[in-house]
């Protein structure tokens, strides 16, 4: 295989992935106006349904334009030897391969962030604002961005530096040490995400004493779920969209409710949502998802170790001096078809888990309360009630609303 052939292969993979994603979006858009199934006829009043269709079309056009712009920028970077240019800048700072790699990815990250910021800004302050979702101020938007950059530099920089160091001292066996490192990091994030990361962006407060808290406590006691505390997060600071999630395990497990969820749903519906989250814990989904994530990471790093030392990866991107950081870029593209397959498997497992959690809520609490909550959340989020089956199969981590309702009413 020659560097030119590998270069053409990389470009081909990029174009195929773009075309498949675009085709799925187009097929999905053709389903927006489909007749609403009888089970979902009460989700939207007519005016709201028309609004949901308009919202989906707006997002479809936005994604098509933004992804096309991203594709053009990426292709220009390939054909104009952009990676070789960034590599030469990085090497002007040091001869140390770890520092060179950190500077290289730092430049790539900053450049990518600069280019993506206007796109994200338009999404938040034009589209989301137009349809009444956005509550983010410009100040909050940019403060969030600065915080994210600082976190990425500190956490991402340390992880990357250690992986580069492992590669320098162990060669092709670096993937074992990198896998252990990433696995430990993933475990820590699963356990302490709500304590370490969430407070940087959001305010969390214990749910106030009252009927809702008492009902949740009573349900938790009934099903033998030892709940340390229930927290409310100020999601309304950024959006009107509602959510709830379960995090941690062991003594660190907690349930977090968005304040918008408490506003949109009644107490019975909120407890039904929590019953679903408790179902994930009781069915060991948290542990299985963690192990699955670690397994996929190990597989990826092992594949990386087979190719990373091949100078063809660097030469294909126009870089004369082979390096880990350039090889990582080329490998990331080459691995994307396999990544799509592993992502497909992960989504299939996730959808199966959602059915199981729904069943647990049905069996231990109230299926109709959960159905009502799902309908309200779909309405308030202007969700797509008639997605294309191919889009669901490839990209959905949750079953569709119709599928969940049919399952709950079995």
List the helices and strands and how they pair.
Blueprint: H1 3-29, H2 46-79, H3 82-91, H4 97-130, H5 138-170, H6 174-196, H7 198-201, E1 204-206, H8 211-223, E2 230-233, E3 244-247, E4 254-258, H9 259-264, H10 267-282, H11 285-307, H12 311-316, H13 324-334, H14 336-364, H15 367-380, H16 389-395, H17 401-408
Please provide a written account of the structure.
The mean pLDDT is 91. The chain is mostly helical. It starts with a helix and ends with a helix. It is built from 17 helices and four strands. 73% of the residues lie in helices and 4% in strands. The chain has one domain (3-200, 284-408). It has a four-stranded mixed β-sheet. It is globular, with a radius of gyration of 23 Å. A hairpin with a 6-residue loop joins strand 3 (244-247) and strand 4. Its cofactor is Zn(2+). This is Peptidase M48. It is a multi-pass membrane protein. The active site is at 277, 358 (proton donor). Zn(2+) binds at residues 276, 280, 354.
């Amino acid at each position: 295989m020659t560097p030119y052939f590998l270069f053409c292969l990389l470009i081909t993979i990029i174009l195929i992935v773009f075309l498949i994603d675009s085709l799925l979006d187009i097929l999905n858009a053709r389903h927006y106006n489909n007749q609403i199934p009888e089970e979902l006829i009460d989700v939207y009043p007519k005016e709201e349904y028309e609004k949901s269709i308009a919202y989906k079309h707006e997002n479809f056009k936005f994604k098509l334009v933004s992804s096309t712009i991203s594709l053009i920028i990426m292709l220009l970077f390939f054909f104009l030897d952009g990676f070789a240019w960034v590599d030469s800048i990085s090497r002007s700072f040091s001869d140390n391969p770890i520092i060179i790699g950190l500077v290289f990815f730092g430049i790539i990250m900053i450049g990518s962030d600069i280019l993506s910021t206007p796109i994200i800004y338009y999404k938040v302050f034009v589209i989301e604002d137009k349809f009444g979702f956005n509550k983010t101020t410009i100040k909050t938007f940019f403060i969030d961005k600065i915080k994210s950059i600082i976190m990425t530099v500190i956490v991402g920089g340390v992880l990357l530096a250690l992986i580069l160091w492992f590669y320098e001292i162990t060669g092709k066996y670096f993937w074992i040490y990198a896998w252990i490192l990433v696995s430990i990091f993933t475990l820590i994030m699963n356990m302490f995400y709500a304590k370490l990361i969430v407070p940087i962006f959001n305010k969390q407060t214990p749910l106030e004493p009252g009927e809702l808290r008492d009902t949740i406590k009573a349900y938790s006691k009934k099903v033998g779920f030892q709940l340390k505390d229930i927290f409310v997060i100020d999601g309304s600071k950024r959006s009107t969209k509602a959510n709830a999630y379960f995090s941690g395990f062991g003594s660190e497990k907690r349930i977090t409710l968005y304040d918008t969820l408490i506003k949109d749903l009644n107490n019975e519906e909120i407890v039904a949502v929590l019953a679903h989250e408790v179902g994930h814990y009781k069915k060991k989904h948290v542990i299985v998802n963690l192990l699955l994530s670690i397994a996929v990471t190990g597989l990826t790093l092992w594949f990386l170790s087979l190719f990373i030392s091949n100078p063809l990866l660097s030469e294909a991107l126009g870089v004369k001096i082979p390096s880990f950081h350039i090889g990582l870029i080329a490998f990331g593209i080459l691995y994307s078809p396999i990544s799509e397959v592993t992502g497909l498997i992960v989504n299939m497992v996730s959808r199966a888990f959602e059915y199981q959690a729904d069943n647990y809520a049905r069996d231990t609490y109230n299926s109709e309360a959960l159905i009502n909550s799902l309908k309200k959340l779909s309405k308030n989020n202007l969700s797509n009630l008639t997605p294309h089956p191919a889009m669901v199969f490839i990209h959905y981590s949750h079953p569709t609303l119709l599928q969940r309702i049919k399952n709950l009413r079995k």
